[in-house]
Amino acid sequence: MGSAWLNFATPFDGMATLANGSFVQGQLADENSAICRALLTDLSPELQRITVPSLVLWGRHDHGIPVVMGEEALSLLGATAGQKSMVVLENAGHDCPSDDPQGFSMAVMDFLTRTLAP
Q1: Domain containing 23: what range?
Q2: 78, 49 Cβ separation under 8 angstroms
Q3: Are 94 and 64 in contact (CB under 8 A)?
Q4: Which segments within 1-118 are labelled E, that is strand?
């Protein structure tokens, strides 16, 4: 049983050749470079241009991007104080919808109810 699974799960021999090809390597290098440039671009000055009602959702246990950065983003939004809010999900890390689906859904529904109410 184990060997059949191993044969099924083992990629075909040509995969290594394909992955090591100069075209693929060049594409990956270009894409990684673009991703790095995008991640290093400071977009905080652009946040003032967001003037629509806005919800900032953050996970308390996000160790990569701390809550204080969400608070800073909230303060930079161009929406008026009554049109922007922040919810920190106590049971979530970086991936709020997966970490705390119920808390995430409730926060979004509450925001939409308040925002869309006549």
Answers
A1: 2-40
A2: yes
A3: yes
A4: 54-59, 84-89
Q: Are residues 74 and 98 in the same domain?
A: yes
Question: Among 59, 57, 56, which residue's Cα sits nearest to residue 90?
Answer: 59
Same-domain status, 26 and 56: no
Structure tokens that stand for 39 in this block: 């991640």
**Tens digit of each residue's pLDDT (9 = 90 or more) over 66-97:** 999 999 999 999 999 999 999 999 999 999 99
Residue 80 C-beta-side C-alpha neighbours within 13 Å = 3
Number of H helices, E strands in the chain: 6, 2
Tell me the C-alpha distance between 108 and 118, whole Å: 18
| 70 in any annotated domain | yes
Structure tokens at 41: 């671009």
Q: Are 56 and 73 in contact (CB under 8 A)?
A: yes
Q: Is the pTM of this model over 0.90?
A: no
Same domain, 76 and 111: yes
- 108 and 57 inside one domain: yes
